[in-house]
Amino acid sequence: MFERNALTELKRWSERPDRKPLILRGARQVGKTTLVEEFAKSYGTFLKLNLDKQEDAELFEKGMNTDSLVTAIYMLNNKPRKNDSALLFIDEVQNSSKAVAQLRYFYEEAPNLHVIAAGSLLESLVGSNQISFPVGRVEYMAIRPCSFNEFLGAVSETELKGAQGNAEIPTALHQKVNALFNTYALIGGMPEVVSHYSKNKDLVSLRRIYETLITGYRDDIEKYARNESSKNILRYILAAGWAYAAQRITFEKFGNSNYRSKDMGEAFRTLEKAMLLELCYPTTSCLVPLIGEIKRAPKLLWLDSGLVNHAAGIQKELIGISNLSEAWKGHLAEHVVGQSLLAADNIFSHKRHFWVGGQHSEAEVDFVMQHDNKIIPVEVKSGHNAKLKSLHLFMDKLPGGVAVRFWGQPFSVDEVESVYSRKKFRLVNLPYYYAEKLPMILDKVV
Prior knowledge:
The protein is α/β, with parallel strands linked by helices. It has 2 domains: 6-142, Rossmann fold (3-Layer(aba) Sandwich), CATH 3.40.50.300; 207-445, no CATH class. The chain contains 18 helices and 15 strands. The strands form 3 sheets. Strands 8-10-11-12-13-15-14 form a 7-stranded mixed beta sheet, sandwiched between helices. The protein has a 5-stranded parallel beta sheet with strand order 2-3-4-1-5, with helices on both faces. Helix 1 (6-15) packs across helix 2. The two termini are 37 Å apart.
C-alpha cells in the first residue's frame, strides 16, 4: 500500500496535548480503514472495534464506566492493558448511539487513549435525529480520494513527488509531469484504483474496480433512502448524473427526468452528505467571506474524476490526450482541478465556489477561493489572456490584483490589462499538476 499524506495530519493530531477523539469523514472506499491501520503501526498497542459485529457493539450497551469499558476493549482484542501508547479505532461507529455518546467520556476520562472513529454511513446520519456527536468533545478530519502528489508516490516517482510537493518542478520536466497528471485525471484517485494501476499499468483492468465501487454506492442507496420513491431518484442520479460533472444543473427534471425539484434536491443533498458529490454554489460577490447563493443553479462536482470518466463513458476519448482543456469540452480539466483544490487539506468544512456576473450576465469564473483575507479567482482555460473575458470582468470588481489560471503550460506570471477598464492585474499561470498546491503558491505570490 502506498503512503497517504493524511498520515502526517494524523501524526500531528496524536502529538497535540489538547487532542480529542477524531472522527474520520469521507465516502466509502476512500481508504479510511486502511489509513488508520497504517497509522496504528506507530503505536505500541492497536485496539480495533467494528460495530457491525454484535459482540463489539454490545460493549457499549452494558452501562460500564469508562475505565471498565477500556479494560473490556483490551480483553476483547486479546491485548494486555499496559502503559504503552495505545490507539483505539472504532469502525462503523454509527451503529451504536451509545458508542457515539461514549466518545466524550474517552476525551474526559481516558485522555491517554488515542481514539479514532469512522463509519461508512456516517455522513447520512450526522445532523439527523438518529445520531448526534458530542459538541466540543470530538474533532473531524476529511478523507478524500488520493491527490496527484499521492499518485506520484504510488507510481514510484518519489523525486517528482517531493518536487511537486514544494511546487519546484523543473521546466525541463514539465512535459513528463503533465503526462503523469493526464493519467491521474484519467484514472482518478480512488485508492484501490491507484494501487492497482501502480502495480499493473493496465487501464482496461480498472473497469472492474470502477464497477465494483459504483455498484457499492448504488447498493448503499437502500440505507440512505427514506422510501421507495427516494430510492428511485437516488438510483437515477447515480446512473445519469456523472455525465453532468463540472456543469451547472437544475433540480427540476434533472437529466431529462420527470422528477420534481423538491424531491430531486433532497436526493442530491443526501448524496452530498454521503460525500459522493458536492453541490458547488455560485457567488456574485467579490468580497470576503465567500457565501454560496443557494437559490441559484449549482455546479455538480463528484468525489472523483476517474469514476466520472468511467461512468460517463468518456475514457476512450481521454487516452493519450495532450491537452486536458480540449477533453470533454473542458469539463474534465475543470473537474479534476476542482478535485485537486479540495485535496489541498483535510479540513471537512471546506467548500468550493464559483462566480457569476449577475442576474442577466453570462459571465462566469470557474472557481473563486478565499486566501487569507483576499478573494482569488481561478480559471481553468488555455488560450490568449484577452479571451478570459469573465475573468477580466471579475478583476474589475475585485479590490485586489491577483488571478490564477490553470493550463497545460509551465508556470509563468503575466502582467495583464483588463479589456474593459484598463485595470492592471497579475495573472499567475499554473500547470494543472500544481492545483493542490495553490494555497502554498499563493503564500509566495500574493
